[in-house]
Write a structure and sequence with these properties.
Length: 343
């Protein structure tokens, strides 16, 4: 049964349960908080990384009470990379998470991890190689023989083979300097490598770390297509708590829409809850997200934020399978996601 088929079956089961509960009156099985009111569902929502600009929508949903309106007591926790977040969701340490498809696809194919995408967040890939201007890097081929800092299994590194194939770079000529998660940018900013691999929205952070000018090669602008950041949960959550999945997704996407429509207010909300983050850097990074239309494409314009296109997901699957030389076995692109909970 594919991911979509499992979710459809789960929705039917959830509807039956709701009808049964409605008929049960005071004997309904909903947990109550001692006041006769249904207690909210405790939910842990794991980011893919630190609470940087891309988290503005999620913090807005929490701050504005939209999770609470849906009967959810949400706790937002930092991530340590998409792969780690996916595993935390799979083991139940987190209920929902933000995971890049470049991490999810290998985990599904290689480890059969029971995690599915329920909505897109970045339908356009933000991955890039970032470098200083004025150092002889003018086109992708100039990266050959250069050193690039990147944390192991970083989404940008996992996608690099696709970028190299699209631009004709000899991938074997790259001098990779592997770091602990998050250390790649400080290493690059200190001048120890020629480039770093990260989201394009990292540039404002780098500008705050070094008195240099930076440029980048966007994977998307060089022909690499596919989904990047997505919202995920487990097959078990989908099968056993479809009502919670739908409520969570409604609140989360409302927050994302708010951050698009009210970027400055959303960033102010994020900064108020994460005071160690620089407000101006957050705002500049979030504006880069919007200016580069990382959250929007033709599909989202027609169908709304979070939309998943069958064709684009297939392209994502094909790109990542080829980039990682993955053995697909019996898996198909349809086994990666469900659209049953989207508005």
């Amino acid at each position: 049964m594919t991911g979509g088929q499992r979710a459809t079956a789960a929705l039917c089961a959830g509807l039956a349960l709701l009808l049964l509960s409605a008929c049960g009156g005071d004997d309904a099985t909903a947990e109550r908080d001692g006041t006769g009111q249904e207690a909210p569902d405790d939910v842990t929502f794991a980011l893919s990384w630190l609470p940087v600009a891309e988290a503005a929508g999620w913090y807005s949903a929490w701050d504005q009470g939209w999770f609470e309106e849906k009967g959810i007591d949400a706790e937002i926790v930092r991530g340590f990379g998409s792969g780690d977040t996916a595993k935390r969701v799979a083991t139940g340490e987190a209920d929902f998470g933000i995971v890049d498809m470049s991490a999810l696809v290998p985990l599904r194919l290689n480890e059969d991890i029971p995690v599915l995408t329920i909505a897109s967040y970045y339908p356009e890939p933000p991955h890039a190689v970032i470098f200083r201007t004025g150092e002889g890097i003018e086109e992708p081929g100039d990266l050959e023989g250069r050193s690039i800092a990147c944390s192991a299994n970083n989404a940008n590194m996992l996608m690099f083979p696709a970028f190299a194939a699209a631009t004709g770079i000899d991938e074997d000529s790259i001098d990779w300097v592997l770091t602990d998660p998050g250390a790649n940018n400080s290493l690059f900013a200190s001048g120890e490598t020629d480039a770093t691999c990260d989201f394009i929205t990292t540039i404002p952070i780098l500008e705050g770390m070094a008195d240099d000018e930076f440029d980048y090669f966007s994977y998307a602008e060089h022909g690499v297509e596919g989904y990047s950041q997505t919202l995920v949960t487990t097959e078990t959550m989908i099968e056993e708590r479809p009502d919670l999945v739908e409520r969570f997704l409604r609140a989360a996407l409302r927050g994302a829409e708010f951050a698009v429509e009210q970027p400055q207010e959303a960033v102010e909300i994020l900064a108020s809850h994460e005071p160690e983050q620089d407000h101006d850097i957050l705002l500049e990074a979030w504006q880069m997200t919007l200016d580069n239309e990382l959250m929007s494409n033709d599909d989202t314009e027609r169908h709304g934020l979070g939309h998943i296109s069958e064709e684009r997901m297939q392209a994502t699957f094909d790109t990542l399978v080829e980039a990682g030389a993955l053995d697909v076995g019996d898996y198909t692109a349809e086994d990666l996601y469900t659209t049953d909970f989207l508005p």
